[in-house]
Structures are given as structure tokens and as C-alpha cells.
Design brief:
This protein is α+β, with helices and mostly antiparallel strands. The chain is built from 13 helices and 8 strands.
């Protein structure tokens, strides 16, 4: 189809994506092709450490590349459908929405995809997001180059999360259909898969493993967690046993802080803790309290806490 179009049509097609604030096609192509051919010079690699102490590489794109990736996300990718089971990087959907589905269930199974971003390849991205049926091949390859690093999906690029949802769209539908037939709740938050209900754990693990293999991904067997209702069930950081709630330790810390503020006064309390910035401390505490109320608006004590903090000068 595309091979019969004149070069001018290709140029107009590329301009329509609004990847940069210019209508000068020569300038646009010069910048885009320069970036795509020198992509390794436009990322800063940093290492962060997970809670378990293991390192994770994060790739920060240069300001120019990041701006282009944002425009690819908003002007090209966002129109592509993703599954209703994907709850991360989705407008209007939050961690709370992801957790609500799993409230008050007999059993929760949590699975993890091993080295998720690093195992999503250049050609997977091209075929899922920018293939020739959708875009001229030269433009599809260009867009793929602009959203990959070392032929992989870079964790840190603004376009990467949504691309991962597109790639796992069919996987989600297959797993979702299996769960629907078997009366199981299923959501996926990035590489975290959560199942809840009363089910055969082995059957879920088997089908997840099979479907991941089809897209060249693997299950992380070290991160398989099964939690029954007699234990604290947590989904993406939120307690879901009877109703959604912040973790007990999180709420206890807030109550402890408020107790000391009332007992000693804010200034004395901050002096004991060697905290210099009172405004920053109060705003942080207000944020934590609002988070608890966001999860559970019935906590009247937290509304009292807010009022007390707002009265502090």
C-alpha cells in the first residue's frame, strides 16, 4: 500500500505526528534521524536498588528525546487499544482501582514477569506498535528506534509503559478469558499479575507460563506469592482483606506522629526529631493522611488530624 505513495505523502504523514514544534520537514527529519542513529548518546544509565537490595538499571532519555517520546505516546500510541485488565499507565485508572477488584477474596495469587522491560525487543515493539500495515516501513522503523535502547524497551522512557501494555494486550485477553470462565478476578499492573477468588493455583501458573512463552517472556518463579484471607492480603501496596486500606504500619506511623505533636507541641517534636523544615514536614504528613482518606473515607480520625495540622502556624 505505502509503496505507491509519493515521498511528499510520507513527509506529511510524519509531520502529522507533531513530534516537534516545527513544520519544516527537512529540519524534522534531520533531527529525528540524527537521534535514531545516535540513540546510545541520548540516554543516561543509572542504577537504583530494589527493596531486596538487587540493582535495577533505569535509562533516562535526554530532554529532546524525552519530549519526542512523549509526543509519540500522546499522538501515536495512545489511540491504540489496550486490554481492560491492564491497570498501570492508563488514564483514569489508579492503584486503588487495581486493588478494589481483589477485595474480600478467599485467596490471592501474585505473579511477576521476569526482567520485564529488558526482554521486550525491538522487533516485538515494531510488530506490535509500528508495523507496516499501519505505517510506512521507514517511518515504523524510525518510531521503533526512537522508543528503544540497545534494541530493548528502556525503563525510564515515557513511551515505554504504554508500549508494554500494547505488547501484552493479547496475553491479557487470553488470561482474562480463562479467568472469566473460572470465576477468577485478574488484573495486571505493569509486570505484576494479580489473581483472586477460589481457584486452582497450578492451573493459573501453567496458562500464564504458556502465554508468556508465546511473546518470549518468562515467569519469575522467585516471586510467586499465595496469600489467604487469614493473612494480610496486599495488592500493589494496598490492604484488601475486608476493604481497601493503607498498610497497618503506615497508619500506625501517622497516629504516632500525631500523638507526639499533641503531647509535646509541633516545635518540640520537630526539635527531638532534628527536623528543620516545619512546612515540609506538615505537608508530607497531610499527604499521608489524605492518602489514607483516599483509600478509606470513613476514617473520621484522619479528618480530625487534617484539621489539627491546618491549625498549626
Amino acid at each position: 500500500m505505502w509503496q505507491h505513495l509519493p515521498i511528499q505523502a510520507y513527509d506529511e504523514f510524519l509531520l502529522s505526528f507533531n513530534l516537534l514544534k516545527t513544520k519544516d520537514i527537512k529540519k524534522l527529519k534531520q533531527i529525528l534521524y540524527y537521534l535514531s542513529n545516535n540513540i546510545e548518546n541520548h540516554y543516561i544509565e543509572t542504577t537504583i536498588y530494589k527493596k531486596n537490595g538487587k540493582p535495577r538499571n533505569v535509562y533516562e532519555p535526554s530532554p529532546l528525546l524525552k519530549n519526542i517520546q512523549r509526543n509519540i505516546l500522546h499522538n501515536v500510541l495512545i489511540e491504540k487499544r489496550i486490554s481492560p485488565y491492564a491497570t498501570a499507565y492508563k488514564k483514569g485508572i489508579s492503584l486503588k482501582d487495581n486493588a478494589l477488584i481483589h477485595v474480600n477474596q478467599k485467596k490471592i495469587l501474585k505473579l511477576d514477569i521476569k526482567d520485564f522491560f529488558d526482554n521486550i525487543t525491538f522487533w516485538q515493539i515494531y510488530k506490535s506498535c509500528f508495523r507496516e500495515e499501519l505505517y510506512p516501513k521507514s517511518i515504523g522503523i524510525l518510531l521503533t528506534k526512537l522508543t528503544t535502547y540497545h534494541n530493548k524497551l528502556p525503563q525510564g522512557a515515557p513511551s515505554s509503559p504504554y508500549i508494554s501494555n500494547i505488547i501484552l494486550r493479547n496475553f491479557d485477553w487470553v488470561i482474562g478469558k480463562f479467568c472469566s470462565i473460572n470465576n477468577i478476578n485478574y488484573t495486571r499492573y505493569c509486570d505484576d499479575l494479580t489473581f483472586s477468588g477460589d481457584f486452582n493455583t497450578s492451573a493459573i501458573i501453567k496458562i500464564v507460563k504458556q502465554e508468556l512463552q508465546k511473546i518470549h517472556l518468562k515467569l519469575n518463579y522467585k516471586k510467586i506469592h499465595i496469600v489467604y484471607s487469614n493473612k494480610c492480603q496486599i495488592v500493589t501496596g494496598i490492604v484488601v482483606n475486608k476493604k481497601i486500606n493503607a498498610k497497618k504500619e503506615y497508619r500506625h506511623k501517622i497516629r504516632q506522629e500525631m500523638y507526639y505533636i499533641k503531647k509535646y507541641g509541633i516545635d518540640s517534636h520537630l526539635k527531638k526529631k532534628k527536623i528543620m523544615n516545619k512546612k515540609k514536614y506538615i505537608n508530607s504528613l497531610i499527604g499521608k493522611i489524605n492518602y489514607c482518606l483516599y483509600l478509606n473515607k470513613d476514617y473520621s480520625i484522619y479528618r480530625e488530624y487534617l484539621q489539627e495540622l491546618r491549625n498549626i502556624k
